[in-house]
Design goal:
Elements lengths: L1 E5 L20 E2 L2 E2 L1 H8 L7 E6 L3 H8 L9 E5 L5 H9 L7 E5 L2 E3 L3 H10 L4 E7 L7 E5 L5 E6 L10 E9 L15 H11 L4 E5 L4 E3 L3 H12 L17 E2 L4 E2 L4 E2 L3 E3 L4 E2 L4 E2 L3 E3 L4 E2 L4 E3 L2 E2 L4 E2 L4 E3 L2 E2 L4 E2 L4 E3 L3 E2 L4 E2 L6
Parallel strand pairs: 1-4, 1-6, 4-5, 8-12, 14-17, 15-18, 16-19, 17-20, 18-21, 19-22, 20-23, 21-24, 22-25, 23-26, 24-27, 25-28, 26-29, 27-30
Antiparallel strand pairs: 2-3, 6-11, 7-13, 8-11, 9-10
Bound molecules: guanosine-5'-diphosphate-alpha-D-mannose and magnesium ion.
The site of guanosine-5'-diphosphate-alpha-D-mannose (GDD) has 26 residues, from helix 3 and strand 11.
């Protein structure tokens, strides 16, 4: 069995963070996002290869994962000549594959039991099995209605408010049979959500839902990107460093440098090579990426700092996400959940 991770989107809703960092590899704490999905797929012993379906800035993704040595799975990259949409990308990546496929949208963080999903697919002899998750407002997702027996009755991508009939949405995780892919046209953009899934229902093919009530989030907006960090700090989701970390105190890499007189309040994470200078305060929900420098008496709280960003002396930074290599000048004040792209420079004494 093979897995395909759809990792070709532009990540427009996460701009400016995704201008130089494709969404599938934005850091979640100390690791590129796709690592968490690969960890989940490793729980399925039958999966012998993970295919990354790429289009936007594929080299940046390949640089991170290489041949897959650091991931413990066999990795292969398939780069579309042009974006083919979710359905077109799956067909393109699945060329020559006849065995059952597990497919993930490359931006969903979840604890779903993939083995159980595969088992349901097999037991029901389905052509397609889709994981559903309940959400408060389905309008940003694919709404999925099911029958009593768990088969899918209706799939409606991005429903209007008056079209919302239930709370279950497409979680972006599928088990698919490639013998259904001949309906997907070659070389043009084709949506699995708007065309392929509705076609299964029209043709009365076995299309089954697996409802999962465990952790699930799409990290593709700034609000959700911040949320997933809070959820991991608070223990609503465990993965990566939080699989083993002691949540009762700040998590500080042994290769970080914390000077005397730094105060910590609440949960925070400080990666290797970071340097926090005397008198600084690191408040709750702070993430300091590799090589971040927090100068004397600066105050950082509820903030995600990507690698190599520097916070000047006496600056107060509460709430934002800052890309790589930013510099917040001394005595500056940032109190908002703004998202500032790589290399942002705030001159001394700026207030946002
Ligand atoms: N290779 C490739 N080519 N990947 C693509 C392309 C493409 O042309 N277009 C999108 N993707 C990838 C994105 O990188 C992302 O990982 C995934 O496909 C889904 O695209 P999004 O743009 O994130 O879609 P969405 O979040 O609005 O909606 C989708 O996900 C929801 C769950 O989060 C849909 O599948 C909804 O039905 C679903 O509820
Ligand atoms: Mg998404």
């Amino acid at each position: 069995m093979k897995a395909i991770l759809l990792a070709g989107g532009k990540g427009t809703r996460l701009r400016p963070l995704t201008i130089h960092t494709p969404k599938p590899v934005v850091p979640i704490f100390d690791r590129a996002f796709l690592h968490y999905q690969i960890d989940l797929l490793k729980q399925v012993p039958e999966i012998d290869e993970v295919i990354l379906s790429l289009n936007y800035q594929p080299r940046r993704i390949e640089e991170i994962f290489g041949e897959g040595a650091g991931t413990g799975v066999r990795l292969r990259y398939v780069v579309e000549p042009a974006p083919l949409g979710t359905g077109g990308a799956i067909r393109y990546a699945a060329q020559g594959i006849t065995e059952t496929l597990v497919v993930f949208n490359g931006d969903v963080m979840t604890s779903v039991d993939v083995n159980a999903v595969v088992k349901l697919h097999r037991d029901r002899q389905a052509k397609a099995t889709i994981v559903l998750t309940p959400v408060d407002n389905p309008s940003a997702y694919g709404l999925v209605e099911t029958e009593q027996d768990g088969s899918v009755r209706r799939f409606l991508e991005k429903p209007n408010p008056d079209e919302i009939t239930c709370d279950t949405i497409n979680a972006g995780i599928y088990v698919l049979e490639p013998d259904t892919f001949d309906r997907i046209p070659k070389d043009v953009s084709y949506s699995i959500e708007r065309a392929y899934f509705p076609s299964l229902i029209e043709r009365k093919e076995a299309f089954v839902a697996y409802v999962d009530r465990g952790y699930w989030i799409d990290i593709g907006t700034p609000e959700k990107y911040i949320q997933v960090h809070h959820d991991m700090f608070d223990g609503r989701f465990s993965g990566g460093i939080f699989a083993t970390a002691d949540r009762s105190k700040p998590i500080v890499s042994p290769d970080a440098r914390i000077e005397e007189g730094v105060t910590f309040a609440g949960a925070s994470f400080i990666d290797a090579g970071a340097h926090v200078k005397a008198g600084a305060r690191i408040g709750p929900y702070s993430v300091l990426g590799r090589g971040v420098v927090v100068e004397e008496s600066a105050d950082v709280e509820n903030t995600i700092l990507w690698p190599n960003t520097r916070i000047g002396q006496h600056a107060v930074v509460h709430g934002p996400v800052l890309g790589r290599n930013c510099h917040i000048g001394r005595n500056s004040v940032v109190k908002s959940s703004s998202v500032l792209g790589d290399k942002t420079l705030l001159t001394d004494y700026t207030t946002i």
